[in-house]
Amino acid sequence: MSNTEQAKKGIMICGHGSRDKDAEREFGLVAKGLKERFPELPVEYGFLEFSAPNIHMGLNRLLSQGVEEIYAVPGMLFAATHAKNDIPSVLTTYEEKNAGLHITYGRELGLQDDMVEAFQARIYESLGLDPENPPENLYDTLLVVVGRGTSDTGANAEAAKLTRIVNENMGFGWADTVYSGVTYPSVGVGLENLMKLGYKRIVVAPYFLFTGRLIKRIQGYVEKVAKENPAIEFIQTPYLSDHPRVIDAFQNRVEEIMQGELQTGEETLMNSFKRRLAAGEVDVHHHHAEFVDPQDDTQGLSVSDKEHGHEHAHDHGHHHSHGHDHSHDHGHSHEHGHTHDHSHSHGHSHDHGHGHSHGVYKHIGHPMGPRTMIGEGICCCFMGQFTDEILAEEKDKIDNDCPKTAFAHK
């Protein structure tokens, strides 16, 4: 391949985005690390929401460098809604608007050996041990892996699978998985239950790429539980960040695209998205919740946007009908000057003024799930999924949370 041909290719890393500026900065470190692996190619990155640059901006930067073929990889640990629906939607829309541009979308990071080994290295480091010379076992220690937690069963299962792999590799006395997101068990309740096993040393290891408000909330939970249980030693493992093995994992995903390996195996994320979109099975939110550059007038509706009826506005006027009466209006943009209007009559209207949403989760009322986080800074997206009965049962926590800034959004 000639230098001229190589100059027409580029790499795009697609992240979720965070209100936490430290998370934005750390995501940039991954792009820097990947650039070192592919010095001959331009490497850019962008986010779905909350953060700049958004994905459109990153793609624009590649086009301005003469790139005609883009290798796009999701900066996601597992394939949940963002990787399956939201990022492909943004990429498809952008490709349609730029004739001659070809974008190939790769796989999520997944449970590659590189990712597992990076996670294990972080755990060893938090224990003051050398990852290159680990002990034979850690039978006196309980490992608690904190997964992101989504409405996607498969993504939740991957976090549990990771826990089992790491447990067997490292030889903990016991290991289990808790989640910081929509599924169960939540971090607080999960820790309370696991402490009953009697271990005097507990490692809490978040399987997250970067810092952010969820990481800080997890740390807050652990500190609270540790203070209440001084006889137990709690060890907090740092998140993955730009560990060299994480960069290796991103490199692997780019090389899969370069070598055409995505077309020889199972259905790709992009092919799956296009098939489900054509069948009317996809409900996309995030590409119209992106951070918008006020100077950028390229983010209007594409042909497919108009055909599929997605209104690209920051104000999500989507309505969840759950067969119960619940008007739940959040006009707080996640800065939490938080007004809850609980009017329990028909036609559940759930207006998000904060520009993002979560998938509907069928176990939203699980006694160990998101309801345990009401009053602890739970995302208001989940509130609209709770039934009237749950909201009535948790009324005291809801009322007590309203006057204060939720911990997760401080």
Q: In terms of topology, how is this protein built?
A:
Layout: H1 3-7, E1 9-15, H2 21-37, E2 43-47, H3 55-64, E3 69-74, H4 81-97, E4 102-105, H5 113-126, E5 138-147, H6 153-170, E6 172-179, H7 187-194, E7 201-206, H8 213-228, E8 233-236, H9 244-258, H10 269-278, H11 303-307, E9 328-330, E10 350-352, H12 380-383, H13 388-393, H14 395-401
Helix pairs in contact: 2-9, 4-10, 5-9, 7-8
Organism: Marinomonas pollencensis
Region (Disordered): 289-367
GO molecular function: lyase activity; metal ion binding
What features would you describe in this structure?
It is a single chain. The chain has 3 domains: 3-110 and 245-307, Rossmann fold; 113-236, Rossmann fold (3-Layer(aba) Sandwich), CATH 3.40.50.1400; 328-409, no CATH class. Strand 5, helix 6 and strand 6 form a beta-alpha-beta unit. The protein is α/β, with parallel strands linked by helices and 410 residues long. Helices cover 37% and strands 14% of the residues. The protein has helices spanning 3-7, 21-37, 55-64, 81-97, 113-126, 153-170, 187-194, 213-228, 244-258, 269-278, 303-307, 380-383, 388-393, 395-401; strands spanning 9-15, 43-47, 69-74, 102-105, 138-147, 172-179, 201-206, 233-236, 328-330, 350-352. The strands form 3 sheets. Strands 2-1-3-4 form a 4-stranded parallel β-sheet, sandwiched between helices. Strands 6-5-7-8 form a 4-stranded parallel β-sheet, sandwiched between helices. Helix 4 crosses helix 10. The longest helix is centred in the middle third of the chain and has 18 residues, at 153-170. It comes from Marinomonas pollencensis. Residues 355-365 have a biased composition (Basic residues). Residues 304-314, 324-354 have a biased composition (Basic and acidic residues). Pfam families: CbiX.
